[in-house]
Design brief:
This protein is an alpha+beta fold. The chain has 6 helices and 10 strands, in the order ααααβββββββαβββα. It has 3 domains: 85 residues, no CATH class; 50 residues, SH3 type barrels (Roll), CATH 2.30.30; 81 residues, Alpha-Beta Plaits, CATH 3.30.70. A 5-stranded antiparallel sheet has the order 4-3-2-1-5. A 3-stranded antiparallel sheet has the order 7-9-8, covered by helices on one side. Strand 2 and strand 3 form a beta hairpin. The termini are far apart.
Length: 274
């Protein structure tokens, strides 16, 4: 019993000695980490304000701010470890070996990361642009280090890993798209009048952009009609509804002006043998 009490007293004495020796150091290290957190936030806000005035892309701006925030906290963490008397050289060597193993195990993730950095800094597209890539198309909603999120007109979302984007052929529509409509008129139609009627219809539609100017021209001499190609520009958000609206307006306008839209016809002749 006496031996157990002696062990307990020895352990208590050891804990008290450790508390006296390392307690102030732990307190100072904790204060250093708290200070690093707030200093990192302050530096991040200052940097974000400066980059906003430089009109830097929002994705690149957020990435730079996060990197600086983590770097500041990392510096304060090193200061806290040094205050505790931790030898940093073996720790750094161990982290290097562990990092090499992690890199081999996470090649796919790291390739997404490298592709994400490439996208952010080369800026082949920005948030809000309408793009087509990797068999998918949609409006760019978010660009992160690992993936890019597109939204479809049907309200669904597509998340594409960045490694599927880097190095692929990209079609970037930007924030406007060009419609490709066609209407056929009869061969006896005055084409100058028909083209002017189509131009007037486009000018009166609020969804059609004035710049770039719409392209209206005769595109083909078909079997039963003269085809007129109509290519106005609209914003990406108006692309789908504009197709139906302009086709309806086109039909109604041509009818009102007395311009005939022919339908395919075939002439059949019956020959009698003598």
């Amino acid at each position: 019993m006496k031996e157990q009490l002696a062990v307990i007293e020895q352990a208590q004495s050891k804990l008290i000695d450790l508390g006296i020796e390392f307690g102030p150091r732990l307190l100072v290290a904790a204060l250093i980490l708290v200070a690093g957190f707030y200093v990192g936030r302050w530096v991040g806000r200052m940097l974000d304000s400066m980059l906003t005035r430089l009109d830097l892309d929002i994705t690149a701006r957020h990435l730079i701010v996060r990197m600086v925030h983590v770097l500041v906290i990392g510096l304060f963490l090193i200061m806290a470890l040094q205050n505790l008397g931790v030898d940093l050289l073996p720790l750094i060597a161990g982290l290097g070996v562990a990092g090499a193993g992690i890199a081999l195990a996470m090649q796919g993730v790291l390739s997404n990361l490298a592709a994400g950095l490439t996208i952010i800094f080369t800026r082949p597209f920005l948030v809000g642009h309408y793009i087509s890539i990797a068999g998918e198309e949609g409006r760019v909603e978010e660009i992160t280090l690992f993936n890019t999120t597109l939204s479809h007109p049907d309200l669904s979302k597509v998340v594409i890993p960045n490694r599927k984007i880097a190095g692929e052929i990209l079609h970037n529509y930007g924030d406007i798209r060009q419609l490709d409509l066609t209407v056929g008129v009869a061969y006896d139609t005055d084409l100058d009048i028909a083209l002017s009627v189509v131009d007037e219809m486009l000018q009166n539609n609020p969804q059609v952009l004035r710049e770039p100017a719409p392209k209206v021209q005769v595109s083909a001499l078909a079997d039963s009609s003269v085809n007129i190609s109509i290519k106005p520009w609209v914003s990406v958000t108006d692309y789908i509804p504009s197709i139906g609206e302009l086709n309806k307006a086109l039909l109604e306008t041509l009818r009102a002006k007395g311009i005939r839209i022919p339908f395919p016809q075939r002439e059949v002749r019956l020959l009698e043998n003598d």
